[in-house]
Specification:
The complex is a heterodimer of chains A (about 450) and B (about 325).
Chain A: H1 3-18, H2 24-40, H3 45-59, H4 62-66, H5 70-86, E1 101-107, H6 113-126, E2 131-136, H7 143-153, E3 158-159, H8 166-178, E4 184-189, H9 197-210, E5 214-220, H10 227-238, E6 242-246, H11 255-264, E7 268-272, E8 280-282, H12 285-292, H13 298-308, H14 311-322, H15 328-340, H16 344-348, H17 364-375, H18 379-383, H19 390-400, H20 404-426, H21 431-436
Parallel strand pairs in A: 1-4, 1-5, 2-3, 2-4, 5-6, 6-7
Antiparallel strand pairs in A: 7-8
Chain B: H1 20-38, H2 51-63, H3 67-84, H4 90-105, E1 120-125, H5 132-145, E2 150-155, H6 162-173, E3 176-178, H7 186-199, E4 204-209, H8 217-233, E5 240-246, H9 252-263, E6 268-272, H10 282-290, E7 294-298, E8 306-308, H11 311-318
Parallel strand pairs in B: 1-4, 1-5, 2-3, 2-4, 5-6, 6-7
Antiparallel strand pairs in B: 7-8
Helix pairs in contact in B: 1-11, 2-3, 4-11, 5-6, 7-8, 9-10
The chains are: A alpha/beta (about 450), B alpha/beta (about 325).
The complex binds guanosine-5'-triphosphate, guanosine-5'-diphosphate and magnesium ion (MG) (2 copies).
One magnesium ion (MG) binds near residues 113, 137 and 191 of chain A.
Chain lengths: ~450, ~325
């Protein structure tokens, strides 16, 4: 995600860095490019303008111009401003107080509310909560069935009722939760346009009566300039407590994140990046800004690794990553682990400088094929890939039900992987960092 | 600013497609008024173009999701024009925009080739949540109302309750549906569906596919396979591939159009959710770069909330309407 913005900024920064002495003029020029980049990334026009103004003001300060590394200074200002705009700290969900804690999930049509509700329920359950989903979308065809199925996938109960009165459904769900051991209620509401008064009033009524602890505004990560209008309207009505950006597994530049955050002043709490119920991440402004600015996101990578494996697995992974040479045995192991960590594409995102790799086709079924091919190799072949000649390739292809070209591709992939691992090695994957990041967002 | 008035969400079953000319006029007069309030305030009569005004125009263009390429193109044209003529007034600017976009859309083929093909196979594609399933319900109703025998194929085997959702739309539209709740393989369903369509003498076959992000290689391969399976049954099919775009999405729409076109040549766009405040300006960039015409626009969640696209309407809604005819 965001690789385009990142690439563009990197080009601009490279130019800035190249200039030993920075003048007012070349700062203005660079900022014009930054502004264009932001607008292309769907950052709202007004938001982009204030961003540039703020950076300009700081960059033109005398200290910056006179410093030895003015280019670096400007980059730092842009980075800091980006982080400031995204929200300085990570804000966890507030689920304390008298149970059940209520979470209302709201947003425009098709933004990803229902999927997110199910993902959140699954995560909360994994962290020891006892959530229940409430089917509060009575309008969209088969919306209730959708939530029911997703709830079953996550082994979370779903409250549903044949009733045309949404407020009543919500009320009844709460009553049932109070009579059970459920301690978190997640309301999946219908998608609606912010200009639809009747539908907005429906939400207000639920909000007034239930006083949910969290109201999460779910926005499609690909949303354009209209993001600010919708976000403002939902926030004005419901006093939103957090923002969720979805479909971030796509290649949208995600400028909406900056816009929505800055017009509502509300924190972005989650990033949804995939259709399966695992693909949910807490939002970390600092890391996100780093991602935008091309520094990669080692911390998230490590955290993901931690969630996917036991401690000792993580340690082994760490060792693997540190190892400079590894063979196809390791590759097979890596695959197993990476598979557990979620879609490969989202992982590649977190590796500094790996944005380019994305063009090299990240394909999940390829993953399975790769595993089959590896399993058709002998031990010796895995230890010494260089012995795999044409004859062996044919045998491996036949054994794994693939083509020779697939085997060739895998061996190339292996080389790519090696390069990726080398990249990772250069970063400090300290054990402390891994420990530090263990805290879950709602703790 | 909304393009069109959104109709109240009623609980009654949606009505059949309305008389479109009236809807146009209605929507148009509304949008004219709104644009008067918005854009008109930028132009004092006979005002000279200065940088402040240009900046306000720029803001307006960006906020319509037109994107940098199109916005810069328009601003360049305005600047060029202002050099030719000392005083540039609103009429000049309107004329200029009408000319630019009018030319862009002028030779577009907006109909679906129903008469030339029997059955006419229409493949509907797009990213997650764009509005494909809803739009298929609307299209089915639209063509069924005009006397065509319509058949829907439920080829979204991935999303939870997708088939149930489409089934409800098929019932609302009163058309047949080919589905298999157990199936995991969309191309199998598509194959069966088209065979069924042929033997049942369908005029129009609409294929609903799962939403997929264009950067997922395996999902795009799956789409390619669907397309090939269609062509295996009817060699020149699909006769139409419609890409459904959420009108509130920004510049990524262009990327979507580009990427989907690589896998299955897109013959038309349907831009949905224009009943809100989003203006769907990214369709201009798509038209400009990829020459894909917009065929329909979605204006709500009911069967009748689909309008055939009219270039004049769009140009007027977005840039015209400086004069209030009502
Ligand atoms: N790729 C991807 N798809 C997603 C993500 N979140 C949701 N989706 C998909 O987007 C589509 C819409 O998601 P829903 O969860 O049904 O959205 P919703 O906001 O509940 O939609 P309505 O109730 O119709 O307003 C579905 O096809 C989901 O599978 C995500 O993070 N990544
Ligand atoms: N307001 C509005 N909502 C729409 C429109 N078209 C679709 N929707 C809604 O957008 C959501 C996603 O639509 P759906 O057809 O399921 O999208 P799909 O995932 O592409 O098949 C649903 O809640 C629809 O009711 C439209 O033109 N206007
Ligand atoms: Mg929903
Ligand atoms: Mg669908």
């Amino acid at each position: 995600m965001l690789e385009q913005l990142r690439d563009n900024l990197q080009t601009i920064f490279k130019n800035l860095r190249g200039q030993g002495k920075i003048t007012e003029q070349n700062i203005a020029l660079a900022l014009r490019d930054v502004r264009r980049t932001l607008l292309e990334a769907d950052v709202n026009y007004g938001v982009a303008r204030s961003f540039i103004d703020a950076v300009k003001e700081k960059a033109l300060g005398e200290k910056v111009l006179l410093s030895i590394t003015p280019g670096q200074q400007v980059i730092k200002i842009i980075h800091d401003e980006m982080v400031r705009l995204l929200g300085d700290t990570q804000v966890p969900l507030k689920l304390d107080g008298l149970p059940p804690a209520m979470i209302m999930v709201v947003g425009l049509q098709g933004s990803g509310k229902t999927t997110f509700a199910a993902k959140l329920a699954k995560q909360l359950k994994a962290s020891g909560k006892r959530p229940m989903l409430v089917a509060a979308d009575i309008y969209r065809p088969a919306a209730i069935e959708q939530l029911q199925i997703l709830g079953e996938h996550s082994s979370v109960p779903v409250y549903r009722e044949q009733n045309r009165d949404v407020l009543r459904i919500c009320r009844n769900a709460l009553a049932q939760a109070r009579n059970s051991d459920v301690n978190v209620l997640i309301f999946d509401t219908a998608g609606r346009l912010h200009v639809d008064d009747a539908m907005m009033e429906e939400l207000s009524a639920i909000h007034r009566e239930l006083k949910p602890r969290e109201v999460l505004f779910v926005a499609d990560g690909m949303i354009g300039q209209d993001a600010v209008n919708a976000a403002k309207a939902f926030n004005a009505r419901l006093d939103v407590t957090g923002i969720v950006l979805t479909k971030m597994d796509g290649d949208a530049r995600g400028g909406a994140a900056l816009s929505i955050r800055s017009v509502t002043g509300k924190p972005i709490k989650y990033i949804s990046a995939g259709e399966s119920t695992e693909d949910l991440e807490a939002f970390h402004p600092e890391r996100f800004a780093n991602r935008i600015l091309g520094k990669g996101d080692v911390v998230t990578l490590v955290e993901k690794a931690q969630e996917a494996f036991e401690e000792k697995d993580a340690e082994r992974l760490e060792k693997q990553l540190r190892k400079n040479r590894f063979d196809l045995h390791d590759f097979r192991e890596q695959l197993k682990m990476l598979k557990k960590m979620g879609p490969l594409s989202s992982l590649v995102d977190m590796i500094p400088g790996a944005a380019k790799l994305k063009n090299a086709q990240i394909d999940e079924t390829q993953f399975q094929r790769t595993a089959a091919i590896l399993d058709s190799m002998t031990r010796e072949e895995k230890s010494r890939p260089e012995i795999i000649n044409a004859g062996r390739r044919r045998r491996i292809a036949a054994g794994s039900g693939t083509q020779v070209s697939d085997v060739n591709r895998l061996l190339n992939q292996f080389d790519q992987m090696k390069k990726m691992m080398k990249q990772m090695n250069r970063m400090k994957l300290s054990k402390q960092a891994m420990q530090k990041m263990k805290s879950m967002p709602w703790n | 600013m909304a393009w069109f008035k959104r109709k109240k969400q009623e609980e009654t079953l949606p009505e059949k497609a309305p008389e479109t000319p009236q809807r146009y006029e209605y929507g148009l007069s509304k949008s004219r008024k709104r644009f008067r309030e918005g854009l008109l305030s930028l132009f004092g009569l006979g005002m000279k173009i200065d940088s402040g005004l240009l900046e306000r125009i720029e803001a307006f263009l960006y906020e319509s999701d037109l994107g940098t390429a199109v916005t810069e193109l328009i601003l360049d044209e305005i600047e060029k024009e202002s050099r030719k003529k000392l005083l540039l007034n609103e009429a000049d600017i309107r004329e200029l925009m009408l000319r630019l976009f009018g030319e862009m859309f002028k030779d577009d083929e907006l109909s679906i080739p129903l008469e030339q093909n029997q059955p006419c196979v229409v493949l509907v594609v797009g990213v997650n949540g764009a509005g494909k399933t809803t739009t298929i319900g609307k299209l089915a109703s639209h063509y069924s109302a005009s006397g065509k025998k319509v058949l829907i194929i439920a080829a979204d085997t991935y999303r939870a309750a997708a088939i149930e959702q489409l089934d409800i739309w098929a019932q609302r539209a009163g058309v047949e549906i080919i589905k298999n709740l157990e199936a995991k393989n969309p191309s199998g369903i598509v194959y069966d569906g088209i065979q069924a369509g042929i033997s049942r003498n369908a005029d129009l076959i609409l294929i609903d596919t799962a939403g997929r992000l264009h950067n997922k290689a395996h999902l795009m391969q799956e789409l390619d396979k669907i397309r090939r399976v269609i062509a295996k049954v009817i060699p020149d099919a699909p006769h139409e591939t419609l890409l459904v775009l959420d009108g509130s999405i920004g510049q990524n729409s262009l990327v979507q159009a580009r990427e989907f076109s690589k896998v299955t040549p897109v013959s038309g766009l349907i831009v949905t959710k224009l009943d809100g405040t989003a203006k769907g300006g990214s369709m201009i960039a798509i038209r400009k770069e990829l020459h894909i015409p917009v065929k329909f626009i979605g204006l709500g969640e009911k069967l009748g909330d689909l309008l055939p696209f009219s270039p004049a309407m769009f140009v007027n809604a977005l840039f015209g309407g400086f004069e209030d005819r009502s």
